[in-house]
Amino acid sequence: MTTWTPIDISPFVHAADSSDVERRQVAAEVSHALETMGFLLISNHGVDSSVWESVQAAASSFFGRSDDDKKACFANRAPVPRGYSASGKENFAILSLKDQTRPNDLVEKFRMGPILDESTDPYYSATKDAQMMFYPNIWPQDDEQALQDAMECYYRRMHELSNVLFRIFAHCLDVPEDFFKARTTRHTSILSVNHYPPLDGPVQRGQLRLAQHTDVDIFTIVCPDYADVHGCLQMEDSDGKWVSLPVIPDTFVVNLGDCFKFWTNGRWQSTSHRVMNPADDAGRQASRQSIAYFVGADYDAPLDCIPSCCLEQDCRHHGETLKTYVAWRKDRIQQAMTQLKKSKEAKHRSRQK
């Protein structure tokens, strides 16, 4: 049975006021959670509630606009997620490499990437990969920057929190505390506000608010909808059973992505998760809104195996050409697209029989 106890990470948030013993205890709890579940809840993370409340309010106002207004923020040529995406237009099932043929997800989103502040550093545009990963953000033109200001503030606070978590992870993995900092200074993280509209009518067979999948990037920090009493966010445990994550005020959910599983040579888990449709009428008539920060490395960061995870006699990296973060990410997404094509072809053949 999966039990959930938030891990108090204040000994790392306020490191000067804590002891080595306290930090080692936090690292031990985090390491156990990530080795066994790939998920954890964190409390006392140092982010004030006003930061996410501002995002929730501004995003709620945006999602309440007309479809035409929202679609004006659709970056249809963006090579990475930016701006608005309408409900029923995306399918996260393709990332699972398992169930590829589900209907599209019942969620609309607004997403942003790195804040460059008119940077002239050639690093951000020197290569096609840089131009892709640092693609410009797109914003509503008539909301007096309410959504932009709120999301950019939240983005910066999540970057600070991700640095705290990276320090914890470094302790867990017995590497220098700045090991990850050197690979995430000019990070490529993505912030997504996810709005799950009320389910007013019937849905297609197998259609969920967000289909089963694993995240692609390093790890994700999720601010849940604290009004969600239906346990819609679920993870798949080691027995293959779906477990609802509790919603605890002022607590964030952290889950690992496929990149970190690769980086740790499989020592830490990237766990399948999904957002279910509420079973009761009251839940189906209620909307849900969460905020997810997907942590990405520098696009050219080398994904050299973490030493404590990569023994020479048993290492899946051994003998491979060293990959950069962006090369690994593109390969992972290409795997998903290839599998999707195979699944569609198999489904088409079965219909012809």
What is the 3D shape?
globular
The main sheet comes to: 8 strands, mixed
What pattern of helices and strands is seen along the backbone? EHHEHHEEHHHEEEEEEHEHEH
Assign the CATH class.
Answer: Mainly Beta
What's the CATH architecture?
Answer: Sandwich
Mean pLDDT: 88
> How far apart, in Å, are the first and last alpha carbons?
43 Å
In what order do the strands lie side by side in the largest sheet? Answer: 1-2-10-7-12-5-4-3
Q: Radius of gyration, Cα only, in angstroms? A: 20 Å
Residues in helix, %: 25-40%
What is the number of helices? 10
- Find the CATH superfamily: B-lactam Antibiotic, Isopenicillin N Synthase, Chain
Structural domain tally: 1
Pfam family, one: DIOX_N
Organism: Aphanomyces euteiches
GO molecular function: metal ion binding; oxidoreductase activity
Protein name: Fe2OG dioxygenase domain-containing protein
Structure write-up:
- The structure is a single chain.
- The protein has 353 residues and is α+β, with helices and mostly antiparallel strands.
- The protein has one domain: B-lactam Antibiotic, Isopenicillin N Synthase, Chain (Jelly Rolls, Sandwich).
- It has an 8-stranded mixed beta sheet with strand order 1-2-10-7-12-5-4-3. A 4-stranded antiparallel beta sheet has the order 6-11-8-9, with no helix packed on it.
- A hairpin with a 5-residue loop joins β8 and β9.
- α2 packs across α6 and α3 crosses α6.
- The longest helix has 28 residues.
